[in-house]
Amino acid sequence: MKAIVCTKYGPPEVLQLKEVEKPTPKNNEVLIKIYATAVTASDSLMRRSDLPGFVLAGDVEAVGKDVKLFRQGDQVYGSTGLRQGAYAEYTCMPEAGTMTGCLAIKPATMNYEEAAAVPYGAMLASHFMNKGNIQSGQKVLVYGASGAIGTTAVQLAKYLGAEVTAVCSTTNLELVKSLGADKVIDYTREDSISSLELYDFILDAVGRRKSSKLKVQCKNALAQGGKYVSVDGGMPWPRAEYLVRLRQIIEEGHFRAVIDRCYPLEQIVEAHRYVDKGHKKGNVVITVGHSNKT
Prior knowledge:
Elements: E1 2-6, E2 15-19, E3 29-39, H1 41-45, E4 55-63, E5 75-79, E6 90-94, E7 102-105, H2 112-116, H3 119-130, E8 139-143, H4 148-159, E9 163-168, H5 173-178, E10 183-186, E11 199-204, H6 213-218, E12 222-230, H7 240-251, E13 259-264, H8 268-276, E14 283-287
Parallel strand pairs: 8-9, 8-11, 9-10, 11-12, 13-14
Antiparallel strand pairs: 1-2, 3-4, 3-6, 3-14, 4-5, 5-7
Helix pairs in contact: 3-4
């Protein structure tokens, strides 16, 4: 099968498309034929690994004899966690969620490319936003609202009934408005700080990688009892319940995947170069093989 391998740390050019042996599922694993994956910010940071790729969408092609949750033919999406290895035509994953990944049935209303764009943001945004215990009517600010985590956080906060203020650059204002943001702040404007209010929950969706005068001031924009959370707070344990929850929200029509660009697996280097620039909107998706299914 075709797979992307990385034998040393370095720039996107260290990623190589090679033929490797197709894996065989263990008793507690499922074999997934991958149709789509994505290049995440974490992938760029993890190019020292020999099997990059954190997320996937595809079909269960075979199951181990002890598997109970999935069966052959199931359309799934998920995160490979520390196991990685999603830049390939096939991968094996345990049916139960662990640090080596988790799976759930794919939203029926999404194709594979759209579904592959969901897990990374779903895992991280859900984990960090749970810390805020967001209630209807509260004010929420998402700093870095146009990335994979931010676009998910904006939509989740709106689903929970919050009044959402989204912070992004000039070019992404219309995008975050289309996701339901009630107010937007362009952090590149000199007067952006004057637009801040007091918020019940603030999510820094970009972490230490990016900063601005506005971001520094955000920490002082909390209402009494408010909470400020950063994605620098650690990588969460992959949890299938987040994917199950998102599937319901998606199928109800309250959430959409944000895809900036799609590349075929053979252009993985170009995809990583683009993500490394740090300006992607939502997700960059990689198509692996072809399917006539949705």
